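Fold this sequence, please.
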Amino acid sequence: MVDITHKSPTVRTAIAQAIVRVSTQATIDAIQNKTVPKGDVFAQSRAAGLLGVKKTADLLPDCHPMPIEYTNIAYEIQNLEIQIKITVKTVYKTGVEVEAMHGASVVALNIYDMLKPIDKGVEIHQIKLLRKTGGKSDILNT
């Protein structure tokens, strides 16, 4: 891991997204009506995403373990796409960009897993960092 012992803790924020595209309106209806056979897609995917954020350092060898002080997972449905947006915050010596993108990836994969019995055309798109603040530089990709 990179040596961060010389850095000072600052407020760090990252916002990441993933987009899940389904193939039919019936799939969107099943999500909204909570009739997907595997359960409530958004609630279960939120739980998976929270674990994904927290477990990032356990799975990616160069990531520092860190306290996660806030995570928000939001969904927006537009036609046949589900936009997942994750915000992660901490006060630490290094940023939370990878944690936010990892969380978005896990949410998208969980949605895929829950929907595959009813929709064989589910796709995951655009896992990316939208915004990062704190530390030496800010990144605004939105």
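Residues 37 and 89 are 34 Å apart (CA to CA). The chain is about 30% helix and 30% strand.
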